[in-house]
Amino acid sequence: MTKFGDFAPLCHDTPSYPWCNLFYRQIQHHQSSVFTSVSSNPATAPVGINPTCGIPFVGSNGSLANIANIVACALSIFVVGALIFLTSRRRAAVGRVEFRIFLVLYWLTLPLQLLTTGSVLQQGSTALTVLTAIHAGFVAATFWALLGNAIVSTQVVEDGTLSSLIPFSFFTLAFFIAVTYISLDTAFSFTSVFGPSDPADSLNNIALFILTNIWPAAAAVIYFALMLYIILGILNELKPVWFYILAAGLFVLSQLDFFLLNKVICKGANQKIDGSFVATILETASVVVLYFGWKGITEEQWDDQEYAYYYGR
């Protein structure tokens, strides 16, 4: 029976689910016998634990790795890089620094996603395990940064000042360190707190499950609720709302694709590609739309004289 915090169903039924890399190393470390043939050989094993469908390690059986998602991640890196540049140019926009931090964090997750889900690093290797732990840390920090941007938009504290940036940066760093440590402990079993799973085949880790599955979803929901309140209730605007509704829709579609259609695409493509590339494209599209929504509710850049006067320069 599946319990709360079990990763076994996700690692079995969801191709290219990155956090399974942590449990693969955990199982190896404790010499567990829960592997079946598809996962037992690291030289060919796809991402996952006994997956129903997965893309084999690059080079094995003629595999080109998860080439579709690799391309999607690479293109997304350039797109988000352009958004970071455009955000930096809007010097007087409200929440510019905080929104740029969010974009930088999301940008950092993309090359990590490429490596942790691309079937380009051998399952169970130290490099893949550590990169997966760092990836998990950045994902958790990214969703805090997303939620933090909504809090900053309420103007509870003045954006871009120490009163905003210190707590914003503190929680960003705290999420990154905490989730990275929990992920590493899950994989390498430094302590008995976060591993090994009992029973081994459940792949159970409640803390990791909350921080990599429930926390991102909760942060996204609260963010969109706060932004709709700010736009409709405080700014009394309607047009920017459609950007946020579209961004929310794209994000939901990305998750539906990853968790529901991913395996279908994998089987239909005979394990050459899976649905992760569609999820990556939709997530990046959601971030692009968020940029335009943020741009629509913030001031345009002031002229140099006004900008200098405002900051006392």
UniProtKB/TrEMBL annotation:
Transmembrane region(s): 67-87, 99-121, 127-152, 164-184, 206-229, 241-261, 273-294
Protein's GO biological process: protein folding
Cited PANTHER family: CHITIN SYNTHASE EXPORT CHAPERONE
Protein's name according to its UniProt entry: Chitin synthase export chaperone
Highest taxon listed in the record's lineage: Eukaryota
GO CC annotation: endoplasmic reticulum membrane
Keywords of the record: Membrane, Transmembrane, Transmembrane helix
Pfam short name (any one): Chs7
Molecular function terms from GO: unfolded protein binding
Lineage: Eukaryota, Fungi, Dikarya, Basidiomycota, Agaricomycotina
